[in-house]
Amino acid sequence: MRNLDLTSLRSFVAVVESGGVTRAAKAVNKSQSAVSMQLKRLEDLLGVALHERRGRQNVLTEAGDQLLVDAKRMVALNDEVFARMTDHAFEGRIVLGVPRDIIYPIVPMVLKIFAAEFSGVKVQLISSYTSNLKENFKKGEIDIILTTEAELDAGGETLKQTSLRWVGAHNGKAWCAEPLPYVSDRYCIFNSPSLRALKTAGISFEMVSHADSDRAAEAMVAADIAVTTMLEGYHPSHLECIDSKGKLPDLGVQKVNIYGPLQESDYAQRLMDILRKTVQDI
Question: How far is 256 from 152, CA to CA, in rounded Å?
Answer without folding.
Answer: 9
